[in-house]
Amino acid sequence: MLERELTISNRLGLHARATAKLVQVLAPFRCNATLAAKGREVNAKSIMGVMLLAAGQGTPVIVRIDGEDEAAAMDAVASLFERRFDEDS
Q: Is the pTM of this model over 0.85?
């Protein structure tokens, strides 16, 4: 299992579009993924679950990924966070 803390840096936080991108990035991987923030842990492959976090800009999030392609999945998630969900120019 891999675990990494990432900070939400895009201006709007984990709103609908950013959440959909996260779920799409994780969809092809054969692993389980969770996000933990503000005392909650949710399935990172579930749009509704991630939306329930209501994580805004600056919120630290723990990403946990467990499965056969966990390293590639973590790299993809970290890259998405680093690119600010492709929203900020």
A: yes
